[in-house]
Amino acid sequence: MAITEQIPGAEFIHKLPGGPVVLASTEKIFKWAKSSSLWPLTFGLACCAIEMIAAGASRFDIDRFGAGVFRASPRQCDVMIVAGTISVKMGECVKLLYEQMPEPKYVMALGNCAISGGIFYYDTYSVVKGTESLGIPVDVYIPGCPPRPENLFFGLMKLQEIVRKERHAAK
Amino acid sequence: MKMSNMHSEQLCVNMGPQHPSTHGVLYLDLRLDGEEVVDCITHIGYLHRSMEKIAENRTYTQFIPFTDRLDYVASMNNNLAYVLAVEKLLNLDVPERAKYIRVIVAELNRIASHLLAIGTFAQDLGAFATPLFYCFREREKVIEIFDEVCGNRLTYNYMRIGGVQFDLPEGIDRRIKDFIKYMRPKINDYEGLLTNNPIFLERTKNIGILSKETAINYSITGPNLRASGVQWDLRKDEPYLVYDKFEFAIPTGKNGDMWDRYRVRMDELSQSLKIIEQAIAGIPEAQATVKAGRMIKPAAGEVYFRAESPRGELGFYIVSDGSVNPYRLKIRAPSFSNLAVLRELVKGVKVADVVGILGSLDILMGEIDR
Amino acid sequence: MRQSKVFELIKLKFPQVSEEDLTKAVIVPQELLPAVANYLKGQDLSFDNLHCITAVDRLERIELVYIFYSFKNRQQAIVKVYLPIDAAEVESLTKFYRSADWFEREVYDLFGVKFLNHPNLARILNPQDWKGYPLRKNYTNPNLIRKP
């Protein structure tokens, strides 16, 4: 059963003589459920946003990872995908959006601009040099300019890993 | 109290900068009287990346990747306009094959860009997800071709001063031909889904009318201008590359309403397919690039060149002082002017139509804010 | 009709204009700009489209570059205005061309050129409380790190 072992939560299934039984602590189940339904914020800043839409659209289908429910309001979201260059003018809004998100919240920095300013690091007066310089903690960095949708999925899987390994389920 | 004496207080609605249908980080300050829009103040600059300042500190070749990030949905066309401007400054002629390759990739990118425009426009009007997903399905086919041609999905960095980065890979003409064959019936699918759909017609006909005079006065270009009835396309009227060798029509609209803008883009899809077909048939076997060197030093001078990008006329005004860096580089972005007219268009319409009008203008914040 | 022909026609009406050697652009004294724009837009030349406005910082002066286009005659005209850098002020063209509104705001934001009688001369790309004019050659900002 190699395939089922890759499914998140496969470790809860125990094979007993009468048939498989799901056996786990509620906290584990909770974490598993949480990691499989991360709702991202619809928040495209620049080029990477197009790849984020492509990841959500027909070919790549982000719904396979349970993260396809893009919410337009930060109050309904679990994860903020910072997709693109943050300008000085936008910086305050990004901070505000992050503060509006309810706990537990996670941040993914998608693309080089969101990581460090990327191609716009030098010689520019109006670009914030990365999400962390705004004081927003980032959980997963996804490099690329722009990252391919596969990279975004890899980042998402890493985030799911982080969620599952958290010490307290209700962070 | 009579109805005419009743006044309601103006309502101020902040739309954006984070909003699902503003096509990027745009902030609209809407003033409403009930359902009607009284005024709309557009605030831009939330993606200002100071490209023009960067250009002054980069060599001419180093700036090509930055042009990708201007209009990130149509990177090839941005690359093209920039390298053509530099080539005009240098008086450099590129090989015939390179011209054909440029036409093919630029038109393919125009298709990809229009697909995104149509898909998001339908999404803005409330046709949730289906048209968008259809359009993205076809757009992925174009992107697959680009992936093979230059190794990236979105920012191609494919054009070079003096030609293109690599010649087309072997067997790509076959794939492009297959794509044309695949794409033609798909356009009919969209037509069936949207064009005569009563709800779609109700939402788009006679709304957001942009008259010919207003369009010219506001310096609107591209499909938005053509939808207002001006038969104007740089590919036809000031032909660059080898566009004068191909046969294609310039679709125009009559009323300049939302539906016409949609119609022009739909028609341009099939015209672009036609151009690609002719270019594939006529492409000569030859070298694709001339060596222009990495450190280009044009003589002191100024040049203005504009090309037809999917959103309108993209112009580059380059001032050279004889060194390796441009002294000043101005990007005349089509969406910048196209967005300026929004305030005029939304006055008096219902608030639900604002996103539709915005979607029909097909703006992109990357090139507005630069 | 070429750029030189446009120059000749403007020169006939306004003898003070001159031609730039290198680019063949028409140089208009700053006080004459509205009159020249009015003439360009009029019946004789019918430049109905103001395609672009930009500026170049030449250290001692700022060059304003206006690109006009005529759909009727299918031709382009480039008009330049030289402004002293410490008193960069010129009449706005918004009453002739609506497209001038945002273009002028952009030039004001990035170069600090004041357009007189503009309906709303506010910064457009940078935040309202921004200090300095970024595209001037002497602009400095702690955020601006030079490429090594």
Query: How far do the termini of chain C sit from each other?
Result: 47 Å
How would you classify the helix and strand content of chain A by structural class? Answer: alpha/beta
- Percent helix of chain A, as a range, is 25-40%
What can be said about the biggest beta sheet of chain C? 5 strands, mixed
Query: What's the alpha carbon Rg of chain C, rounded to whole Å?
Result: 16 Å
Q: What letter string, H or E per element, gives the SSE order of chain C?
A: HEEHEEEEHE
The share of residues in extended strands of chain C comes to: 25-35%
Q: Work out the count of structural domains of chain A.
A: 1
Q: What ranges of chain A have pLDDT less than 50 throughout 5 or more consecutive residues? A: none
Strands of the widest sheet of chain C, in order across it, are 1-2-5-4-3
- Which fold name fills CATH's third level, the topology of chain A? Rossmann fold
Count up the helices of chain A: 6
Strand content of chain A: 5-15%
**What integer value in Å does the Rg of chain A equal?**
18 Å
3D architecture notes:
The complex is a heterotrimer of chains A (171), B (370) and C (148). By secondary structure, chain A is an alpha/beta fold. Chain A has one domain (39-159): 3-Layer(aba) Sandwich (Rossmann fold). Chain A has six helices and five strands, in the order αββααβαβαβα. In chain A, strand 1 (13-16) and strand 2 form a beta hairpin. The model of chain A has no long low-confidence stretch (mean pLDDT 84). Chain B has one domain: Cytochrome-c3 Hydrogenase, chain B. Chain B has helices at 51-55, 64-68, 75-90, 96-124, 130-150, 172-195, 198-204, 212-217, 223-227, 234-237, 258-282, 334-340, 342-346, 352-361, 365-369; strands spanning 11-15, 27-33, 36-43, 159-160, 163-164, 301-309, 312-320, 326-332. The radius of gyration of chain B is 21 Å and the shape is globular. The model of chain B has no long low-confidence stretch (mean pLDDT 87). In chain C, 22% of the residues lie in helices and 26% in strands. Chain C has a domain at 3-87: NADH:ubiquinone oxidoreductase Nqo5 subunit (Beta Polymerase, domain 2), CATH 3.30.460.80. The model of chain C has no long low-confidence stretch (mean pLDDT 85). The N and C termini of chain C lie far apart (47 Å). The longest helix of chain C has 12 residues, at 100-111. Chain C is built from three helices and seven strands; from the N terminus they run H-E-E-H-E-E-E-E-H-E. The A-B interface holds A 41-47, 49-51, 53-54, 57-59, 70, 72, 74, 84-85, 87-90, 93, 97, 119-120, 122-127, 145-146, 148 and B 17-20, 24-25, 45-50, 53-54, 56-58, 65-66, 69, 72-73, 116, 132-134, 136-137, 139-140, 143, 153-155, 365-366, 369.
